[in-house]
Specification:
about 170 residues, alpha+beta, six-stranded mixed beta sheet, about 35% strand
Length: about 170
């Protein structure tokens, strides 16, 4: 019986390592290449997730917005975002993907925190020192780090003051 229990434990550890390896590859594809300039709003205080949590992430926030969730390495999470926000009066409203925001008077001039993704996309960060990563409307992952989970729009820092609206973001443990 002890040998069988040990074999099951080893297999569970192997599966967790494979999930974390796959998540790391996805984070690498979605992450910012350098540090950002934003501060942090640390309220609500992050706590381990029990069930699920919903937060409203404002488009005009010029700081990383605390989700109130403390992410635990090795645990599986799912982030889902709904609603619309606008990255300025000249831009079209968008969902968390950021698709469709650009107009003749609102163009992709660069400067977003996570290059390669729209200024209107939802981004996140685990901890204060890890790189930001693109979330979009939905992202499932196995956490490769411990730390508080923060959210922000992918807009360029200089242009956040005219943003409006907010997204409803659900964080759940799988």
């Amino acid at each position: 019986e002890a040998l069988r229990q040990e074999a099951l434990r080893q297999e569970a550890l192997r599966q967790e390592a494979l999930r974390m390896e796959a998540s790391q590859a996805e984070f690498d594809r979605r992450q910012a290449p350098k540090d950002d300039v934003f501060g942090f709003k640390d309220y609500p205080v992050p706590r381990p997730l029990v069930g699920r949590r919903t937060v409203q992430v404002p488009a005009a926030s010029k700081q990383w917005f605390s989700s109130g969730v403390q992410v635990k390495r090795g645990r599986q999470y799912r982030i889902q975002a709904s609603g619309q926000w606008r990255m300025g009066g000249m831009c079209n409203p968008s969902d968390a993907s950021g698709q469709g925001i650009y107009t003749p008077l609102c163009w992709d001039g660069g400067g977003q925190t996570v290059p390669g993704f729209s200024h209107g996309g939802l981004i996140a960060k685990i901890g204060k020192t890890r790189p930001a990563f693109y979330v979009g409307p939905e992202f499932s992952f196995t956490a490769v780090w411990d730390g508080p989970l923060y959210f922000l729009s992918n807009d360029a820092a200089a242009f956040m003051g005219d943003n409006s609206g907010a997204l409803d973001v659900i964080i759940s443990a799988e």
